[in-house]
Specification:
The complex is a heterodimer of chains A (about 350) and B (about 280).
Chain A (H helix, E strand, L loop, with lengths): L3 E9 L9 E10 L4 E5 L6 H9 L6 E6 L2 E2 L11 E3 L11 H11 L4 H14 L15 H13 L7 E4 L7 H18 L3 E5 L2 H7 L2 E6 L2 E6 L1 H6 L4 H6 L6 E9 L2 E4 L2 E4 L12 E5 L5 E2 L7 E11 L4 E7 L2 E7 L9 E5 L6 E4 L2 E2 L1
Parallel strand pairs in A: 3-8, 3-9, 6-7, 7-8
Antiparallel strand pairs in A: 1-2, 1-4, 4-5, 9-10, 11-12, 11-14, 12-13, 14-20, 15-19, 16-17, 16-19, 17-18, 20-21
Helix pairs in contact in A: 2-3, 2-4
Chain B lengths: L1 H30 L3 H5 L15 H7 L10 H31 L9 H13 L2 H14 L6 H26 L2 H9 L4 H12 L1 H17 L2 H5 L8 H7 L7 H27 L9
The chains are: A alpha+beta (about 350), B mainly alpha (about 280).
């Protein structure tokens, strides 16, 4: 277990080009010991590159990797004592399940007794105990992935367990249970877990801290709540949450209000120093409510459609060219075609050049 | 319709089997004949058509001094040369193939694929092109007409096959397997021989089989690079022929020449049909 520090890391796959394209732009980050992190972002944004740099499969073009303040940038993977689980199950098909799970310990010369004890503990957690003597290649895809995961968890002293979309091949029910298992393992053994995913629900339910990436750039690091309520860029607002955040082109109106079409919307942000161009207002559909007795921040809209998702209704409305989405209680009945929606000032985020003010 | 299909299927299988087996049966039958039974009239069935004799087989083990041709020594020479050259080719070829599959090489305009092609090109050339260089090479280092010289030449001929097959095989082994082994605590060498190699046994078997077959059946280089000291089986078998073709001993020698390959095929087939190749990695 270790604190992992990435200092001024950047990486390009074609360092000899005149203008190399960077898979990872320069960044620094610290992963505290024993916490759960999720790296979230669309395909090709540099998530896997970052993991491979930490595990040592890839040497960063620039910057240093530190484990507990020791520089490990030039150490090979074997010497870093780190675990990594890939998207697709990787098993040693010529070995039994037991030998697969024991392999990382055998490579590090643990005693047979200790190996048996650790393998038993891990196989119990992952419910693989009944398969221990079977050839690993005879198992199903999701059981194979459990073996991959087990090999990552079998070492107690591992610096961190890095997981690259590990639950893709596992069915939803088991996925849910495994995520909870991983949390328990993290709480019990204080193992640092880093979890790469493009599924925001997975990230939100799993991690203490979420790292959102886009095009080789880290756009926001924070608690799930911050990412949800105060996305630092419009990309985060768009990428996190379902449906995506409502975003509107607006004009500045006063020190703390903006105009959408002709309606004034008050915010809790000080807008006095902004220039009046490329300003956007963002608000989550969860916070847009059907107005009851509010007197300001009201938008009169025409209802386009109402979809029933079982636990909520999703209302899609139009105001001129603007589309507004609102998650409403399913008990609320709407009979009129035209209604007023309320934007709570404290939930409104203002963006200039796609960055949060 | 189904009956017709079945009928055609079985007809085809039977015809094909006859096509494959008939020459063997002919050779088996002929190997037990004497001059009279071969040359007088058409005969097929022992004891009914002709009186079987072991003369054709005896000639093969009798020393030349007693009128035999003694193929025992060439036989073991062939086994030694083929096995040694195949083993070394597989070891070197597998290492080369792993490097070509996993690392990126750049030397001027030469890339991994060019190096792989260079290996294969050794087999694309007609063998006659290589005969003079090989002859001069072996005579320079004093290995003409020796087993060691033949082993060296056969390594050159067999390694391309091993490289070709193993590069393709390693390319289909996901690199995550090596990476996982590294993460689990192997150094790169351990990752290769503890994890990648055991997963590549089917490929090794196929490559080994091809090496053995091509090594065993080679006549050309065995013929031009040896004279009196050393002889390999194919050369000796051809040398059996004389003004009167000894069909009986030729048949017998042909049968014991293919015997090792048939045994290899039987042994190897079990491994290949186990399905070890598929489903092992994903």
């Amino acid at each position: 277990m270790a604190k992992i520090e990435l200092s001024n890391i950047s990486h390009t796959y074609n360092p000899n080009d005149l203008n190399p394209t960077y898979a990872l732009n320069p960044f620094s980050m610290t992963w505290e010991n024993g916490k759960r992190y999720a790296i979230l972002g669309p395909s090709g944004c540099g998530k896997t590159t970052m993991l491979n740099i930490v595990s040592g499969l890839l040497k960063p073009s620039k910057g240093n990797v530190l484990f507990d303040d020791n520089d490990v940038t030039n150490l090979i993977t074997e010497e870093r004592n780190i675990a990594q689980v890939f998207q697709f199950p990787v098993i040693y098909s010529t070995m039994t399940v037991f030998d697969n799970l024991a392999f990382p310990l055998r490579c590090r010369n643990f005693s047979e007794e200790k190996i048996k004890e650790r393998v038993k503990s891990v196989s119990d957690t992952l419910r693989l105990s009944t398969f221990l003597n079977m050839p690993a290649r005879k198992l199903t895809a999701d059981q194979k992935q459990l073996i991959s995961l087990g090999r990552g968890l079998v070492r107690e002293d591992v610096a961190a367990v890095l997981m690259d979309e590990p639950l893709t091949v596992i069915d939803p029910d088991l996925k849910f249970r495994l995520r909870r298992n991983l949390k328990e393992i993290n709480e019990e053994y204080k193992t640092t877990l880093v979890y790469v995913t493009h599924d925001q629900n997975e990230a939100m339910t799993f991690a203490d801290n979420i790292i959102v990436m886009d095009q080789g750039e880290i756009v926001q690091v924070g608690l799930p709540k911050d990412l949800f309520e105060r996305p630092k860029t419009t990309f985060v607002g768009y990428f996190i949450g379902s449906p995506a955040m409502n975003l509107f082109e607006t004009q500045l109106h006063s020190d703390n209000s903006v105009k959408i079409n002709d309606t004034t919307i008050k915010t809790n942000t000080n807008l006095s120093k902004l220039k009046n161009n490329n300003i956007k207002l963002g608000i989550r559909s969860e916070f847009v409510k059907v107005a009851k007795d509010e007197s300001e921040n009201l938008l009169e809209v025409n209802i386009q459609k109402i979809e029933d998702f079982g636990n909520f209704k999703l209302l899609t409305a139009k105001m001129g060219q603007l589309t507004i989405k609102s998650k409403i209680n399913r008990e609320i009945e709407i009979s009129n075609n035209t209604i007023k929606l309320h934007f709570p000032a404290e939930k409104c985020c203002v963006y200039q050049d796609n960055k949060l003010i | 319709m189904e009956k017709l299909y079945k009928f055609l299927k079985y007809t085809f299988i039977i015809l094909w089997t006859v096509f494959i087996v008939a020459p063997f049966l002919w050779a088996v039958s002929t190997s037990f004949k004497d001059f009279q039974s071969v040359n007088s009239k058409v005969t097929y069935i022992p004891w009914l058509d002709f009186e079987p004799t072991l003369e054709g087989w005896r000639v093969l083990v009798k020393s030349p001094a007693r009128g035999g041709v003694d193929i025992v020594e060439p036989y073991f020479n062939s086994i030694f040369v083929t096995c040694t050259a195949s083993l070394i080719s597989i070891i070197l070829g597998t290492l080369a193939a792993y490097a070509l599959s996993r690392f990126t090489f750049k030397a001027g305009f030469v890339r991994n694929n060019d190096i792989t092609f260079f290996f294969i090109s050794q087999r694309i050339m007609p063998p006659i092109v290589l005969s003079i260089p090989f002859f001069i090479f072996l005579s320079t280092i004093g290995l003409l007409d020796s087993l060691l010289g033949l082993v060296v030449v056969y390594i050159v001929l067999l390694m391309p096959i091993a490289v070709w097959i193993m590069v393709d095989f390693f390319n289909r082994v996901p690199k995550e397997l090596d990476e996982t082994a590294l993460i689990d605590g192997c150094n790169p060498y351990q990752a290769f021989y503890k994890v990648v190699l055991p997963n590549s046994i089917p490929g090794l078997i196929v490559a080994g089989m091809f090496c053995i077959i091509f090594g065993w059946i080679d006549f050309f280089f065995a013929f031009i690079l040896t004279f009196t000291e050393v002889q390999l089986l194919p050369v000796k078998v051809v040398a059996l022929n004389s003004s009167i073709t000894p069909w009986w001993s030729l048949s017998a020698s042909a049968l014991i020449s293919v015997a090792p390959l048939i045994i290899v095929a039987f042994v190897v087939e079990r491994y290949l049909s186990k399905g070890n190749l598929s489903g092992a990695l994903k």
